[in-house]
Amino acid sequence: MEVSHVTLEPNKDSRPAVLTIGKFDGVHLGHQTILNTALSIKKENEILTAISFSPHPLWALKQIEIYREMLTPRMEKERWLAQYGVDHLIETAFTPRYAETTPEEFVTDHLTNLHLSHIVVGSEFNFGKGRDSDVDLLRDLCKPYDIGVTSVPVIETNQTKISSTNIRAFIRRGHFIEAEQLLGHPWYITGKVENGEMIGLDDYVLPATGTYQTDAGLVKLTNNRTIQVDLPDGLQQLHMKNELS
């Protein structure tokens, strides 16, 4: 998967494409439904492009701590998006300057840099300054450019809305099975191990301190956002299973 990093509009790209847009934290079952819909619309000569944003707007603009934490920081998100069929990821830095982009500017100055036939988004999608826009406005703004727009309804499982917010809540409570039911894939923590301690986890949503069973045996999550592990030094990955204490 090709990855581009931008601060405002995407770079010009003449390749025919179908586009999807979102934060994609977790790349959960709802995101996967959107991606699969886009893949079903995409023609053989087109690529699937995704525009994603980080950090979360409420962290970027208001420094609300809870919104700093992610299910899938950059490396994990890229891995899952590639697995689910994205050819080109445009990772957009969400900044106060970017937040001033109006819906009209987003379409006329940003999306027209791409050669799009169709856009697929979730039914709750909003965009542009003030977040008071919706899918209907996106559809109206795209009409002059002959870009179709499809919205995908929010889905539920076991009467629980599939959303990154709900999944993060499960992780914080140590309910990994429930979280993975909404994710549709395993939830991993990836970090650098130094002398038996996994570090570099500041961007992850984490459960409470305690001892947990993982695919690498028992680990201890400390109160300074590190994990004590019996693994070699270097970049390592953990699959959390359940809390023991």
Structure characterization notes:
Keywords: ATP-binding, FAD, Flavoprotein, FMN, Nucleotide-binding, Nucleotidyltransferase, Transferase. Residues 12-166 form the FAD synthetase domain. This protein has helices at residues 29-41, 57-62, 74-83, 96-99, 103-110, 135-142, 164-172, 176-183, and strands spanning 2-6, 13-22, 47-54, 88-93, 114-122, 148-152, 156-157, 160-161, 188-194, 197-199, 210-214, 217-221, 227-228, 234-243. It is α/β, with parallel strands linked by helices and 245 residues long. It has 2 domains: 7-154, HUPs (Rossmann fold, 3-Layer(aba) Sandwich); 160-239, no CATH class. The strands form 3 sheets. It has a 6-stranded parallel sheet with strand order 1-4-3-2-5-6, sandwiched between helices. The chain has a 6-stranded antiparallel barrel with strand order 9-10-13-12-11-14. The protein has a two-stranded antiparallel sheet with strand order 7-8. Helix 7 (164-172) packs antiparallel against helix 8.
